[in-house]
Amino acid sequence: MATKNKAADNKALVGIDKTAREIYDKSLKGQKPQLKMPVRSLTNVKYKNKTGYLELSNQYKTRTLTYNTVKGFAQTLKMMSASKELIETNDHASKREMYYISKNWGPARFDEQPESDTVMDDIEAMMCVNREQLRFLPEEKGGEVAGQLIVFDRDRDTNKPIKIDCTGFGSGAYSIPISVEHLEFQTKAKFILCIETAGMFQRLVAHNYWRKANCILISMGGVPTRATRRFVRRLADTMKIPVYTFVDGDPYGIANIYRTLKVGSGNAAHINEFFCVPTATFMGITPQDIIDYKLPTHPLKDVDIKRAKDALKNDPFFQFHKPWVKAIEQMIKMGVRAEQQALAKHGLNYVIDEYLPEKIKAASKFLP
Amino acid sequence: MSKSKPSSKKSAAPEEVKSRKPAPMKTHEKKKGKAEDADSMAKRQREISVSEFFAKNRHLLGFDNPKKALLTAVKEAVDNSLDACEEAHILPEIEVKLERLSAPIVEAAPENEKDAKEGKDSKKRKGPVPTERYRLTITDNGPGIVATQIPKIFAKLLYGSKFHRLKMSRGQQGIGISAAGMYGQMTTGKPMRITSKLPKKDKAHFTELQIDTKKNTPDVLSEKDVDWKFKSPSGTSVEITLEGRYQRGRQSIDEFILQNTLSNPHGHFRFIDVDNQVFDYPRKTKELPEVPSEIKPHPYGVELGRFHQMAAETTARSLKTFLSNDFSRVSDKVASEILSTAGVKDVPASKITPHHLNKVHEAIPKVSIMSPPTDCIVPIGEELIMNTLKQHSKADFYTAVSRSPAVYRGNPFMVECALAYGGDLSGEEPMTVFRFANRVPLQFQPAACATFRVLTKLDWKKYGLNQPRNSLPVGPIAILIHVASVWVPFTSESKEAIADYPEIKQEIRLAVLECARQLSLHVNRAYRAAEAERKANYIDTYIPFIGEALQEMLKLSDSQKDKVVSTLRNTLERSKIDGD
Description:
The complex is a heterodimer of chains A (368) and B (580). Chain A is an alpha/beta fold. Chain A has helices spanning 6-28, 70-88, 95-101, 113-127, 198-206, 209-213, 226-239, 251-263, 287-292, 302-314, 316-320, 322-334, 350-361; strands at 34-38, 45-48, 53-56, 60-64, 93-94, 136-137, 144-147, 150-154, 161-165, 174-175, 184-186, 191-195, 215-219, 243-246, 281-284, 298-299, 336-337. In chain A, the strands form 6 sheets. Chain A has a 6-stranded mixed beta sheet with strand order 10-7-13-12-14-15, with helices on both faces. Chain A has a 3-stranded antiparallel beta sheet with strand order 9-8-11. Chain B has an 8-stranded mixed beta sheet with strand order 5-4-3-6-2-1-7-8.
């Protein structure tokens, strides 16, 4: 899979070499070497509607080699070296495998995988590449796909195309692979529906909603993975079809799941450009839906309110879109949330028979 | 003290009015006997001799129990020997020999212990405590004693050269050795045997003495010239037979001798114990301590009674010259000022009245008089007390301080302190405290001593020691405190604890604090050194991985890698001192 991405390989290799060289030169001069990386947080992203994703802003943090940082420094360099070797030998390692590789490093080994993952994220941001380019693969599972779509993959050994018809999985679904760059598509679907929960996805698949609505169903399973975002992005871009998002009507569904799908994450802003779906819109559940459809609700918890307020205060995406500010303020004021499956109150297939058709008819009014 | 004590009944009577409890007893007693009148009481009122008083109150002199009595006897004799040698400018050589004359008493068997727990049984058995009998011989190489003085010195209480002067010495009152002899005489009936040789004579003089406790006078049982069995040109040997109990360990003769070697590094001590084992402590310095000079009393410290007495004994011709001649720091000018403050005119000595003296005594505190001269105090010295502690324990850190002299009640005094920390000292035990007064080790009543009151009041937690409330700190620390004075105030005649005059406590406090400050520097230094080492190790652990990673990524040669590692190490070593 990594054979063709020479450019990506080069960017990673050049970055690693440059960083290593700088550290080496500075060290020999008797100075304390430094590692410079962008600050990975929402405070360091900006949003331009024109480009459509959260871009890295210009805050950097430098980590200077001192008594306190010497261990992290050694680990970072060792992992960079491991990455370089993976690229040169055309291999890859999962995050978990990387953690186990470090067990050869004696006292510099990682004790727990989260430590190793953090260092990996640092290197990724430092080089402004994604971890796939560093040849580190996530464990996380991609989303699932069902509906009016044919995916063309390639056989690993023979490189012959493999045709995958996403209507042919019965009550199951097609799993999005970890790397999607080489996939090609063929579809006549009118839209893509990205669904938060597996439960809702199952209901729509089981009743062949995709056939009725002529669409592609994607199960995100919470916050969409990079692969899922990339898959939807490529699908939407190449096939030029709209993307609708169907998540729980709560701050997490809005500020985490939808926002990440549409404009990327604040934590890995250096790669958002490719791992986001700027054309996505928000179908539901909106705060207004809670009223219009008389949905049963739960009160917002403190953490929900905090998340909602944080979105208004710090998230440049929501701040840019006035309708979103209004919607979130409305939710805070109502003090309640409603899940996707709350629609079952009106009958199990109410969502298929009433809610979705009605909403999609007015797709132009979806929240941005 | 020598005043007769009125019968207890009469003196108690007025007090009983105040307290209700004893009232029934009073009526009870009334029924029992006939009422006394002044005449009948007068028949029983008579003088009590000092010797008699101390015979009854021997605990006041440190002879409360057999074990302590034995030690006190040794202590008094050794103190006297050291004083005598130093005054004669002789490097002291002192031998203490202890022989057990009776069969040793076996310690209580386990079944007795069980009895002790069942209170009643043990009460029944309570008879006279069995004791052992010892012969104690202390020999020194001092100047010897003129034959005619021997009886009075050894067999008359309150006789001596040291009471009537203000000079730093071990003995002060002239009680000690006579009391030891008296104790021996009372418990065993054996006389004291003294052999003394003067340097100019060939023969030594031997005297067998008893004390007449009623009259406080010596009885010479026999005396003769004998051969001097020792190498020294002069010296004195005292032999006392007494009841006692010899045990090793804390508060033992062994400990006393050892501590004496600490405070008297110029002395050669030898102890021959009951098993004929010889413990020899050669001197550590041949330098005699400076001989302390004698001073006149300072007016601020003289009590009214003594003031009257001095006036009666003075050879001065007038009231004014009495003041300027007999007291320290009183010039003609100061004497005139005292008289004018008192509103008393100078009168010839013969015309001095008690009224004059009272007025003058009253005026003294109102006149500013220079502190007494302090060169009369001879310290052991910072280096020597520190060595002393070094001998006692292997520690990591030692410090010592000799304060400059100060004054309490007109008496010059001086405090020295040494401190040892860490090393082999146990971290689990309370602080070890060595107390010395005029070079004499103090082994008893620590809690009553000014030193303790100071040590327990200080906050030792900031030096990394645990400290239970109002107690000595717990930790690897030993401290030595020496109080030297022309007159060390003790809480009792047995000279076991230093009385807590505020001025003395303050000086002790300052001395200890000065040592503690050094300790805190040391502790911090040690902590910083350990911390620096820990950091260096930490850095050394990880830097090689940086070198290794750079080598892998940049295809460095081994020598390039080694160079970058050593350069980085130096860079970090330099900066880690700054704390980052």
